[in-house]
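[09:14] KT: can someone run the structure on this one? pasting the chain below
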Amino acid sequence: MGKLTAQAQPHAQPHVELVGVTKRFGATVALDGVDVAVRSGTVHAIVGENGAGKSTLGKIVAGVLQPDAGTLKVGGQAVRFGSPRDALHHGITTIAQELSLVPARAVVENVYLGIETGRLGLVDGRALRRRLEELMEREDLHVPPDALVRQLSPHDQQKVEILRALARDSSLIIMDEPTARLSADETLSLRRTVRSLADAGHTIVFVSHFIEEVLEVSDAITIMRDGHVIRTSAAQDETYDTCIEGMIGRTLESTFPPKRELPADAPVVLAIDGLSREGIFEDVSFDVRAGEIVVMAGLVGSGRTEVVRAVFGADPSTSGRVRLGGAAVDFRAPHEAIANGIAMIPESRKDQGLVLGRSVRENVTLPHLRRFSRGGLVRTRAERGRVGEMMERAGVRGIDAEARARNASGGNQQKMLFARWLLADPPLLIADEPTRGVDVGSKRAIYDLLAELAGEGMAVLVVSSETEEVLGLADRIVVMRDGRVVAELDGHTATEAQLVSLTLGSEQQAA
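[09:31] RB: done, structure tokens below
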């Protein structure tokens, strides 16, 4: 897909500037002497690995954080924001990855919350609705005014956030990972909205780790690494490879680790035979051998996640058989699967994997507390030692074991889940979308870890929606469509054309 048309003036004056900005959190330097100039009416992307400092930069511009040193300028004038309200007075607002809407209230109420039209303390609902309809028409952003926010899709919820920013006369909008929760079609629509806003004179600071979309939608790109600005360039002067090299400090010679030949006598660890769940998936059969990485491919809704959840005991099956190490098993709950040597990285680390309000240490040892307990008390010294070892092996960097999980980057949060199961050394690891929402450097670290575990003899079953990931990781590919297995492919010889046609149900499956 080509770059969306940019009409912004390349020589526009800076809307906001950071000059020598430094920000520390204890001993950690999040930003170190950062210089960035964002020009008016442009889409300015900030890219970098998780922990590079890009979100911290955005929070300083938005008034959420204050710099320890350096100067923030708006329209050429030095400013110091004590809060997001101060930033809003200067026309700056932010749309965070986790939206801040009121789910139980209507769209119109969310858009004008705090700036309602009324007299004598009474809100004029008719006037608010009229203002919203005029705003939506002017910006070509349409959402049902009376719909409850919780009933909207993630994409429509983001439209509400944008409308709320525009209703407050925001001239600069910071978008932090705005497409992380969106489908492919919704992502494309949001990119068009972003370009439209810039073409209308708004300035967009676009924080993202999705390089392809950054190259498509941006006018300028600032690349960050370890709290430093590596460079700021016109988007047309960057490529995927140059961005990646700037972000990680080296060329990414190969995205995936080399594949190994599986021994012919490798034993079957997991065997699934005719597994079904009425109305969800039907007659699913395949196996996974020791030292093998099997990847389940297919569209969202094809039944892949539902199958692995049934194997793990998280959801019931209605018929079929599962064997683990040759023995028939029928797990009714995840704790039974864990006790029998199955580990699972769930599809959503925040909703299903981590207790975000607890420490990294507690999250890693959560399923293993018995081995660290004596007389009902947790032996925290032994626990800390083992957690430190597992964090090191899983590549969790830049965060203390006692820090809250919610304060970790997306990549570190995902690696925590791997650290959790490294403690158990299970014969079978199931990983559902193991690299969703992590940066390219963390992806490679996770790929290396999966290959390492398989090389040590662990059976690895992966669910993935990324074609490149499926082809790059798999020794064998199980393709699902409409709740059924439609093909098995050799991961060493499968092609993108084969995989896409099988996934979509094309007649050209032999291509």
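[09:33] KT: thanks! The radius of gyration is 25 Å.
[09:34] RB: yep, looked fine to me
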